């Protein structure tokens, strides 16, 4: 029996990075459904809607319009129904302060986006391999 596809929420405002992530995930071997939120407000609204699948993994950019990724991360990790969803911060920021703050807010890992196209695809594939093929994700206990 085939397992159901993994649900991924990508929170990213850069259309080029969205396309690259989609391409890298398509090339991966794990079946997934990718939903995209273009800003922090849209991400939180998506997570709170009853008619959308609960993500198994969230890929979160920090520098977002309307509500930045740090605020989104804090809200997710303070919500009893959402806090067990793994959040991978995938951002262009290399600032130590952002790394420290993200882990203080309980990010599951912090990855700096490479500028190079091939490297970016390699990073997304490694996220896919690790989080979706190796790690055992928590079951949805919110219902």
Structure notes:
The protein has a five-stranded parallel beta sheet with strand order 2-1-3-4-5, with helices on both faces. The protein is globular, with a radius of gyration of 14 Å. Helix 1 packs across helix 5 (117-134). Strand 4, helix 4 and strand 5 form a beta-alpha-beta unit. The protein has helices at 15-27, 40-48, 69-78, 96-104, 117-134; strands spanning 6-11, 32-37, 57-60, 87-91, 109-112. The model has no long low-confidence stretch (mean pLDDT 88). The longest helix has 18 residues, at 117-134. The relative contact order is 0.19. The chain is 41% helix and 17% strand. With 143 residues, it is α/β, with parallel strands linked by helices.
Care to give the gist of this entry?
This protein has 143 residues and is an alpha/beta fold. It is built from five helices and five strands.
| Number of helices in the DSSP assignment | 5
Instruction: Tell me the number of strands.
Output: 5
- Secondary structure class reads alpha/beta
Question: What is the terminal separation in angstroms?
Answer: 25 Å
Secondary-structure map with pairings?
Elements: E1 6-11, H1 15-27, E2 32-37, H2 40-48, E3 57-60, H3 69-78, E4 87-91, H4 96-104, E5 109-112, H5 117-134
Throw out a few tags for this protein.
143 residues, five-stranded parallel beta sheet, 5 helices
């Amino acid at each position: 029996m085939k397992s159901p596809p993994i649900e991924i929420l990508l929170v990213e405002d850069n259309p080029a990075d969205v396309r690259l992530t989609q391409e890298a995930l398509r090339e991966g071997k794990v079946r997934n459904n990718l939903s995209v939120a273009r800003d922090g407000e849209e991400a939180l609204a998506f997570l709170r809607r009853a008619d959308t699948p609960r993500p198994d993994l969230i890929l979160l950019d920090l520098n977002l319009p309307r509500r930045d990724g740090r605020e989104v991360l804090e809200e997710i990790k303070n919500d009893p129904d959402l806090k067990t969803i793994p959040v991978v911060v995938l951002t262009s920021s290399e600032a130590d302060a952002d790394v420290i703050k993200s882990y203080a807010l309980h990010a599951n890992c912090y990855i700096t986006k490479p500028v190079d196209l091939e490297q970016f695809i390699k990073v997304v594939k490694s996220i896919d391999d690790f989080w979706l093929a190796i790690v055992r994700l928590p079951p949805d206990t919110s219902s």
